[in-house]
From TrEMBL:
It holds the Pfam family Aminotran_5. Residues 59-288 form the Aminotransferase class V domain. The keyword Electron transport does not apply. InterPro entries: Aminotrans_V_dom, PyrdxlP-dep_Trfase, PyrdxlP-dep_Trfase_major, PyrdxlP-dep_Trfase_small. This is Isopenicillin-N epimerase. Keywords: Pyridoxal phosphate. The keyword Transport does not apply. It comes from Kribbella amoyensis.
Length: 379
């Protein structure tokens, strides 16, 4: 049995009677960051003119801290609302000629696939979806994706950590497979705080959310752009920074926007540092392994043997026949919330339905034991 040393639910304002087991969807903001955001909003509303004159300098300070947290070049790091926005900005930058192909995998996040479909429709290109088995090892992943790349490939979009399956993809090897000929867009939505220096694997574009595992305010994400693309990469909203030659500053000022989450985000990074995050992340990996085993035993199901699982997420198969429809999955989540006081999420893959469990610093093994007691009564 793995025991997480010193869980810290006191650092959050989460409802104590609820089992919070889905940090991977919307995150949870620490109390201290919430208090900072409240002070910043009070300041903004006390004198909006002074506030907006101060925003640019505050954003620069925040960006430098967040770029340092990622271990990336701040000159190529811009703030965006979420990873979907980062992928969309990347797709708007790369050439997608008529008749070309955008390659992605069956692990891709739904909104990312929709973005690729939109650009392909507009440019007369097509989508190619590569099927990667859930239990594939890195060699299989690289070989399977490489086989789908050809002279018509305009871009490869690949997850760093799949939202649907919590599988970690070998980004550096895939970048090498593209050989600098094919632009690589990495959806690193779950990567910040789960992988060290996640944006340093050589992709043309990398984007990741700070509102997930770094526990930053929602609406905070980063876009890292390789030097060759920085001049051409533009924000999705045309605003007063349109002609700024610097990539980060072009993305900073998006009109009358709520910049408080972006400015406050480094406070959550500091909370992680005080939690000794690298050590705690290792503990959480053991915790989520044990929690998944407890739940699978209670359900009489199994845990897929993912070769490279994320540090803090695991899949546990549910005793369903086939994949639950979106309506069925939503019904289970709503009933779990109302009847079991448990916040969970479901995912379907390769004909099976799973619960995707998360673990963060506020969780303990007791949370998963209680879910294991309650969930069978609902299914």
């Amino acid at each position: 049995m793995v025991t997480l040393l010193n869980p810290r639910p006191d650092l959050w304002t989460l409802e104590p009677e609820v089992l919070h087991l889905n940090h991977g969807s919307y995150g949870a903001v620490p109390r201290r960051t919430q208090e900072l955001m409240a002070r910043l909003r009070t300041e903004a509303d006390a004198n909006p003119m002074v506030w907006f004159r101060s925003v640019a300098d505050r954003l620069t300070t925040s960006r430098l801290e967040l770029a340092g947290f990622l271990g990336t070049d701040p000159a190529g790091f811009a703030l965006v609302p979420n990873a979907s926005a980062g992928v969309t900005a990347a797709l708007a930058t790369i050439p997608i000629p008529a008749g070309s192909r955008i390659v992605l995998t069956n692990h891709a996040y739904g909104a990312v696939r929709y973005a690729a479909e939109r650009f392909c429709r507009a440019r007369g290109a097509e989508i190619v979806v590569v099927d990667i088995p859930l239990e594939a090892d890195d060699d299989t992943v690289v070989a399977t994706i490489s086989a789908a790349l050809d002279e018509r490939t305009a871009g490869l979009i690949v997850d760093q950590i799949s939202s649907a399956t919590a599988m970690v993809f070998p980004i550096r090897r895939l970048v090498e497979a593209c050989g600098g000929r094919i632009p690589v867009i990495v959806d690193g939505a779950h990567a910040p705080a789960l992988l060290d220096a996640p944006a340093e694997d050589g992709a043309d574009f990398w984007t990741g959310n700070f509102h997930k595992w770094p526990a930053a305010p929602r609406g905070t994400a980063g876009l890292v752009v390789a030097e060759k693309w920085r001049t051409a990469t533009m924000p999705l909203i045309v605003s007063w920074s349109e002609y700024d030659e610097r990539l980060p500053e072009r993305f900073d000022m998006q009109g009358t926007y709520d910049y408080v989450p972006w400015i406050a985000a480094p406070e959550s990074v500091r909370v992680l540092a005080e939690l000794q995050w690298p050590e705690r992340r290792t503990q959480l990996s053991g915790l989520i392994d044990e929690g998944a085993r407890v739940l699978a035993k209670a359900l009489g199901t199994g845990i897929p043997d993912i070769a490279s699982p994320a540090a803090t997420m695991r899949l546990v198969e549910l005793p369903f026949s086939g994949v639950a429809t979106p309506g069925e999955a939503e019904s289970v989540k709503i009933r779990a919330s109302r009847e079991l006081k448990a916040e969970i999420t479901l995912t379907g893959f390769d004909g099976r339905t799973y619960i995707r469990l998360s673990a963060h610093a506020y969780n303990s093994l007791h949370d998963y034991e209680v879910l294991a007691e309650r969930l069978p009564t609902l299914l």
